[in-house]
Specification:
about 160 residues; 6 helices; mainly alpha; single chain; elongated
Length: about 160
């Protein structure tokens, strides 16, 4: 890839680099954001304790994708700002970055610590009943997840309409 880019003229090289970064950014959004919207739906679909344990096992395996996608989003987003020579001069980009940081604080600071406890509770349970405290713990996380989803939707909207 770099060999091909090195054979091209300056502006053309930057245009191709920019297009590659856009592609990586969009793929990272799909990989990073998609599971974040699907996982809560999966969790709510369980009807028995064994289904709940199975779903939480799947969630544990899939949970690395939003983290990897999120890191890739921020890196490619900042690179796009640099390569596109926008810097930090565009309001919708700055707002998107601020919202993204808020999302990460909510996830890392509040959702993940609670989810770790819930996962331990669920995975240690036996039988077909949901473990004691599960419903109450999930009720505490749901407003936070809703906030993350709303902020994510706003970021996507900003990226599409670019006001």
């Amino acid at each position: 890839m770099l060999i091909i880019l090195n054979t091209l003229e300056g502006d053309r090289k930057m245009n191709i680099l920019y297009e590659i970064l856009v592609l990586l950014h969009v793929l990272a959004a799909i990989v990073g954001i998609g599971p974040a919207f699907i996982l809560p739906v999966l969790g709510k679909s369980a009807k028995t304790g064994s289904q709940l344990r199975f779903i939480f096992g799947v969630i544990q395996r899939i949970n690395k994708f939003p983290k990897t996608g999120g890191i890739t989003l921020i890196v490619t987003g900042i690179l796009l700002m640099i390569v596109g020579k926008l810097g930090f001069s565009v309001l919708w980009l700055n707002l998107s970055l601020i919202l993204f940081v808020i999302i990460e604080v909510i996830i890392i600071g509040f959702i993940e610590p609670n989810m770790k406890k819930i996962v331990q509770l669920v995975m240690a349970s036996q039988g077909e009943k949901f473990p004691d405290g599960y419903a109450e713990s999930m009720k505490r996380i749901m407003p936070l997840e809703g906030t993350v989803h709303l902020l994510t939707f706003i970021i996507i909207l900003l990226m599409v309409i670019k006001p």
